[in-house]
Description:
Chitin-binding_1_CS, Endochitinase-like_sf, 9 strands, disulfide bond, alpha/beta, chitin binding
Amino acid sequence: MLFRIYFLCLLLAQFVSAQTICSKTSPCAQGCCNKFGNCGFGPDYCGTNCISDCSRKSECNPGFGAKWAKSDKCPLNVCCSKHGYCGTTTDFCGNKRVHRKTCPKDNGTPRVVGYFEGWARDRPCNVFWPEQIPDGLYTHINFAFATIDPATFKVGPSSETDIGLIRRLMTLKKRDPKLKVYVAIGGWSFNDPGPTYHTFSDLAASVPR
């Protein structure tokens, strides 16, 4: 009889141990650990029964009280679950439906940006010139690349032949007045060891220039 009682007690102890997911030495990944070895938020876990990480607060307040939550409501008006987490699925909202905001079809300004490489003229084949850019396709065209004089910080063309290409790009505005043409500065070799290696950092550090 005593053996049976001992055996039942041993099984019960193993069951309780299996149900315990946290302790003073094994904290919760999220939430507070109460004396029963369970993780969660609110007074049942972070209050007088808490044994570990008792200062943690839930994302939102499902009814715990402001003391136990980081915020009373979830951002963007999403749902607060009974456990104090924010989300949009049924696990968080139950039967409540979250209305997602939509933008009107005529909202915003579409932009199509083209990237014209100055070295396209030097290709061994398929040489590409500014006049080959289709009218009305791009809203913006960036010419690559201009450079910066490391001594004066003056912006200029990477080569003299680029000046003509930039002018030809600007001429496209006669065919498409809404087109905007910009010049990109630098390039992948601009920051390589050489005269312009520190130009960007020097420019940022020089307030008067």
